[in-house]
Write a structure and sequence with these properties.
Distance between the termini: 81 Å
Strand content: 35-45%
CATH class of the largest domain: Mainly Beta
Number of helices: 12
CATH topology of the largest domain: Porin
Shape: extended
Radius of gyration: 37 Å
CATH superfamily of the largest domain: membrane protein fhac: a member of the omp85/tpsb transporter family
Strand order of the largest sheet: 18-19-20-21-22-23-24-25-26-27-28-30-31-32-33-35
Helix content: 10-25%
Structural class: alpha+beta
Number of strands: 35
CATH architecture of the largest domain: Beta Barrel
């Protein structure tokens, strides 16, 4: 038997404590961690506790405790401190951001060096590169000792090439072509825009989403037994190419043979059957089954049954390839809303959100009212995201809370606009607006237009809830100068100063009636070469004119989105009248109809029509500066702003009392960004005309154009670009092929 000697400390009373070996750390720091002090009795247990306590600080790599005649000697060897951290070869990430991230895990200048933390940092850095598709990354760390017990840490990174998806294969697909199925995927092989979208880089999350899209594609077309058997992702030896193989079993195509309902039906069976969108004889569709169960649940939810459970149970006939479905209904207990909570509105006041609520606290739960409330909050335009949850109240069976969670976005907007023509050069305009000033939901804007033709200064203010009933009130103060000398219209200059008040009255959830009253004073300057019509007007009515303008309008907005509409209708009718008692007496009527037709999942057809008509009253003519104009980015693209229509002797447009504009635009995803809702392209056909004759339009004056447009809701603001080619320009028409507007949020 062999026994090793054990050194033990004979118990003694501590007369003093001495610390040896410290360089940067103060002796007081060591004393603060020691579990003993002068006057205590030193034992083996106390010595062990002291060693564990000092090691636990992480400051030391070696600790020893000795006794010297009643004096406790603490001998330590400090860990080195980090003098600097450097990155070499890093291009994919910002170095400052990496240094900041390392400091958050304790690895930074002035911190105690810990080899375990360095290893974790190295692995985390590799993981970040792998998430960017750089599977060949190599990270080498070097620790260099420096004077005064310090070290320098260098991360040498060989980023390697980004691994790209070179092939995606679907094995077992026979009903649909592999090309059509792969077009459903977000992941794809390198293409025209994948340098921007990064969709040619492998991502496990994206692949899972693509597989679910593939499954839905088959299940929505009758292949009820479709199954994804395997998914293999392999990488080439040089870690630059990725290959994805998906094995599927399609199975037979099923039709629906019968649809029944069962369970506790609180509604008439006939009403429930109307909510079921899948019918006998049709091809099975999982989307329609899901839609049907949701329709029934939502209908029961409108009566307070928030936790209604509806399940569609299939009965398969595998010989005939038919499926009979029974919808089992369990309405559960009727519940009411205890409290409505709002979270995430750090800037927007609670009342701005709560006044959009159609579900009331203390009332029966209504899924329809809650969804309508969410839609109204979303349409405010103040939030990037609006989500609703309805958790049950703990300890009750008939109460729920409605929790609205919002993610705020910048509601200020700086808008810059520009147009470029071969002869006119560049025109600029701009505005600054805040839709939600001080979180109150009120709108304020200042607009400045500095084009060669129009100089506009305008201040607008709108309170959308001037009354508790939702009647809005707004004020406008503006100064406009139109210089026909610099534009393509007849030569004249008008300076208009005005101010007005307006109101908006909501009639339904989508219909609003507006009306207002304004006063305008217009000063007119003509020249020797001005159109004779303009000169005659000034000689008859003078250089200064005033008007009391009354307006009334109606708007119905049924579009599904303000930024990326795919379905729905927008209608707008506006009337403007110069009232008796002022020098200008006239009326103008404008109507717009716009509709979006969803063609497929990705393609939408937009049709827009606008008509305008005006005339004078009490035997007076329509003031020429109230004429309608057409041409430009908002009417007939490809023609310069306001240049379509009757011309004067100099070939400049002078507008007219009638205006007609039509647009047809085929909207589709930007190539390579099929599932990106922030960018969209369009192929358009525009037509429009202006006439100054008081009888039906002369079709010979219609101008046509065609071209391409791009809309991008960029991180810096909305960007619109159009490139158009006129199809039948006249000898005096002025073209403007390229136009764009850009807005930046703040």
């Amino acid at each position: 038997m062999i026994s090793s000697p054990v050194l033990a400390i004979e118990p003694f009373v501590v007369k003093d404590i001495r610390v040896e070996g410290i360089q940067r750390i103060e002796a007081g720091t060591v004393f603060s961690y020691l579990p003993l002090k002068v006057g205590d009795t030193m034992t083996d247990e106390k010595a062990a506790q002291a060693i564990r306590a000092l090691f636990g600080t992480g400051f030391f790599k070696d600790v020893a405790i000795e006794a010297d005649g009643g004096v406790v000697v603490v001998a330590v060897q400090e860990r080195p401190s980090i003098a600097q951290v450097e990155f070499l070869g890093v291009k994919e990430f910002e170095k400052d951001q990496l240094i900041k991230s390392l400091r958050q895990i304790g690895l930074g200048d002035g911190r105690i060096f810990d080899r375990a933390q360095l290893d974790r940092a190295e692995q985390e850095l590799k993981r970040q590169y792998l998430s960017r598709g750089r599977y060949a990354v190599a990270v080498t760390t070097t620790v260099t000792p420096l004077e005064r017990n310090r070290v320098a840490i260098n991360f040498n990174v060989d980023e390697g090439e980004v691994a790209k998806i070179r092939q995606i294969g679907i094995v077992g697909a026979k009903v649909f072509s592999e090309k059509d199925l792969l077009s459903l995927f977000v992941l794809r092989t390198p293409g025209l825009m994948t340098w921007w979208s990064k969709h040619d880089q492998y991502s496990r999350q994206k692949l899972s989403a693509d597989l679910e899209v593939l499954r839905s594609h088959y299940l929505d077309r009758g292949y009820l037994e479709f199954n994804i058997d395997s998914t293999q992702v392999t990488i080439s030896p040089d870690k630059r190419d990725i290959f994805i193989s998906i094995g599927v079993t399609e199975g037979p195509k099923y039709t629906v043979s019968e649809v029944k309902v069962a369970g506790e039906m609180l509604l008439p069976e006939a009403e429930i059957l109307k909510l079921i969108t899948v019918k006998p004889g049709e091809v099975f569709s999982r989307t329609r089954i899901t839609e049907s169960t949701k329709n029934i649940s939502d209908r029961l939810g409108n009566d307070g049954y928030a936790f209604a459970n509806v399940n569609a149970a299939p009965d398969l006939d595998k010989i005939k390839h038919q499926a009979a479905f029974t919808f089992f209904i369990d309405p559960g207990r009727r519940v009411y809303v205890r409290r409505i909570n709002v979270a995430g509105n750090n800037r927007t006041r609670d009342e701005v959100i709560r006044r959009e609520m159609r579900q009331l606290e203390g009332g029966w739960y209504s899924a329809e009212k809650i969804n309508l409330s969410r839609s109204r909050v979303d349409r405010l335009g103040y939030f990037n995201e609006v989500t609703v949850e309805t958790p049950s109240v703990t300890g009750t069976t008939d109460q729920v809370d409605v929790n609205f969670s919002v993610v705020e976005k910048p509601t200020g907007n700086v808008l810059l606009g520009a147009g470029f023509g071969s002869s006119e050069g560049v025109t600029l305009s701009g505005s600054i607006a805040q839709q939600n000033i001080f979180g109150s939901g009120k709108f304020v804007s200042i607009a400045v237009n500095t084009s060669k033709v129009n100089t506009v200064y305008a201040l607008s203010y709108t309170d959308p809830y001037f009354t508790v009933d939702g009647i809005s009130q707004g004020f406008d103060i503006y100064s406009r100068e139109i210089d026909g000398t610099e534009g393509g219209i007849g030569r004249y200059v008008t300076k208009t100063n005005g101010a007005g008040i307006r109101f908006g009255v909501p009639v339904t959830e989508r219909d609003t009636i507006t009306y207002g009253l304004a006063y305008e004073n217009t000063s007119i300057t003509t020249f020797a070469d001005s159109p004779l019509f303009y000169q005659d007007y000034v000689r008859t009515f003078g250089n200064d004119n005033d008007a009391i303008v009354a307006t009334a309008g109606w708007v119905r907005d049924g579009r599904d989105s303000l930024i990326y509409p795919t379905t729905g209708t927008l209608q707008r009718a506006i009337g403007e009248v110069g009232l008796p008692g002022a020098s200008l007496e006239y009326y103008r009527l404008i109507y717009q109809y716009q509709r979006y037709f969803p063609l497929t999942r990705y393609y939408t057809l937009m049709v827009n029509g606008e008509a305008g008509y005006g005339d004078g009253t009490n035997g007076l003519p329509l003031p020429f500066f109230k004429n309608f104009f057409a041409g430009g980015v908002n009417s007939v693209r490809g023609f310069k702003q306001s240049t379509i229509g009757p011309k004067d002797a100099n070939g400049d447009a002078r507008g007219g009392n009638q205006r007609l504009v039509g647009n047809v635009e085929f909207l589709f995803p930007f190539p390579g960004l099929q599932n990106d809702k922030s960018v969209r392209m369009g192929a358009f056909f525009d037509a429009g005309m202006v006439d100054d004759k008081y009888y039906p339009f002369d079709a010979g004056g219609i101008r046509y154009s065609t071209g391409l447009s791009v809309f991008w809701s960029s991180p810096f603001g909305p960007l619109k670009i159009s490139v158009a080619a006129p199809m039948n320009e006249g000898p005096f028409d002025k073209t403007q092929a390229f136009q764009f507007t850009f807005g930046g949020a703040f």
